[in-house]
Amino acid sequence: MPNLPTKQIDKTIYGPVLSWRFGKSLGIDIIFEISTCSFNCIYCQLGQIQKVTLERKVYVSTEKIIDDLKEFLNQNIEFDVITFSGSGEPTLAENLGEAAAEIKKLCPNKSLQVLTNSTMLLMPEVQENLKIMDRVICKLDAATDKTLRQINRPAEGISLENIVEGIKSFKKSFKGILDIQMMFMPLNLSQIDDLANLLKEIQPANVQLNTPLRPYPMKWQRENRGNHLPEDLVETRQLKVITKQEAEFIEKTLRDKTGLNISSVYRE
Ligand code: SF4
User: Fold this and answer.
1) Which helix (H) or strand (E) is 211 found in, with range?
2) What average pLDDT values come out for the chain (268 residues) when binned by 10 residues?
3) The whole model's pTM is what?
4) d(CA 259, CA 134)
5) Ligand 1: which atom is nearest the Cα of residue 153?
6) Which domains, and CATH codes, for the chain?
7) 90 CB within 6 A, ligand 1
8) 51 CA to centre of ligand 1 in angstroms
9) How many helices (H) and strands (E) does the chain have?
10) Cβ 39 under 6 angstroms from ligand 1
């Protein structure tokens, strides 16, 4: 019998989730209590975000995260990388840097990474929290404020300029790998040229192209953090995705226009 994680519903550690990009990814949920984010993306795997906010605070204690991680590590389950993601935007957590430093002590040989929506990266304290990471994967789905509002539905005060300037500013001092992830839907298909121009300005190490293959859950439950398990299914709505041919066209166009290293969920 393979080793399987014990029930993780009351834990800040989840998975490992099998990721097309990172292999077996152990998730750290530093938001945890309810879904909380500075975006409310129309494709979010958490469903409708319960609290859309820019408030930075401690959402769950570092002590609980470390206790949960120690318990997980005692189960001797294999994983490849550790990823801050979970119930919302990790950079809203004031203790992100502190938790990352403690995790590094326990797992010094595992790559530590963050999936961020890039909205908080202009803040010096967020840049400071992130500098310990081996990889930061920044979301960029829109090339205009109108599309940003349509797809990502941000908290008031967030603009595309904030986001792009935040990524560029953070990249200047960051010693790890900075990647961009892009979610393609019919809504942003016409923006490939403008997105290519933004990528050329940013010069990420890698670009990961995605489309919402997972259905949108109609209500939040903590299990939505990882891969859906059959017993965890809630009512869902299928989203409009791009076709395989469109994905191939986007991948080729972005590669030709930017010369960057591009990977796609459809190809992996
Ligand atoms: S940024 Fe991530 S967590 Fe936040 S709403 Fe979008 S997909 Fe969900």
Assistant:
1) none
2) 62 92 94 96 94 98 98 96 97 98 98 98 98 98 98 98 98 98 94 97 97 82 68 74 91 96 85
3) 0.94
4) 23
5) 5
6) 13-264 (3.20.20.70)
7) no
8) 11
9) 7, 12
10) yes
